[in-house]
Amino acid sequence: MGDAGDTAPSRASRRYGIEWNNHWLATPWLLLDADLALSHARFTEDDPAGNYIPGAAERVVSLGATVTGRGPWFGQFQLRYFGPRPLVEDNSQRSGSTPLAALRVGYRFGKDTKLALDVYNLFDRKASDIDYYYASRLQGEAPGAANDVHFHPVEPRSIRVTLATSF
C-alpha cells in the first residue's frame, strides 16, 4: 500500500476527491496560483482494525505568486500545506499538518545567464515530511516494544544559489 511507504498488497479501497487548480495572471508580470485537493480514502472490506487508509492525505493546499517581466528581476513565493492524515486504520492516531514555504529571487544577466537564490523551508518549520505509527524499541529501553509515532523530519531551512547559463 503506497500510502504506508511500502508496496505490500492490502485490502481493497475506494478513493475519490476533487482538485481545484487556479492560475490567474493578475498583471502582465504577476501570476498567482491556488490549488486545493480534497480526498476521501477508505478500505471497502470491513475489518475490526478500522477502514481508514494510513497515510492517505485528505487535504493539500498550494498557494503561490510568481513575478517575471520586471526588468532583469524575477521571483517566486510558494506555500504548501499537507493536512493531518490517519496513521492507523481506526483513525485513533493522526499525523500533524505540514505547512512549508519556499522563496526564489533571481536576476537575469542578459538572455543566456541568470543567478537565483532559493530558500527552502523559509520559516524553518519543525515538522515532518511523513509519519508512521508502529511498535518499536530503542536500545537501552525497557524490554518490549511500544507503539509510537515515527517520522521523517522536513529538512531545516536551506539556501541554494544557482548560476545558470545556456549556449
Q: How would you describe what is shown here?
A:
The N and C termini lie far apart (45 Å). With 167 residues, the chain is mostly beta strands. It has a seven-stranded antiparallel beta sheet, with no helix packed on it. It is built from no helices and nine strands.
Radius of gyration: 21 Å
**Mean pLDDT, all residues:** 92
Outline: elongated
Give the end-to-end Cα distance, rounded to a whole number of Å.
Answer: 45 Å
Instruction: Indicate the structural class.
Output: mainly beta
Largest sheet: 7 strands, antiparallel
As laid out across the biggest beta sheet, the strand order is 1-2-3-4-5-6-9
Oligomer: single chain
- What percent of residues are in strands? over 45%
Q: How much helicity do the residues have? A: under 10%
Number of strands: 9
Spell out the helices and strands N to C. EEEEEEEEE
Uncertain spans, ≥5 residues at pLDDT below 50? none
Brief sketch in words of this structure:
Helix content is 0%, strand content 57%.
SSE topology:
Elements (H helix, E strand, L loop, with lengths): L12 E15 L2 E14 L15 E12 L2 E10 L15 E12 L3 E8 L7 E9 L9 E8 L4 E8 L2
Annotation keywords:
about 170 residues, mainly beta, 7-stranded antiparallel sheet, about 0% helix, elongated
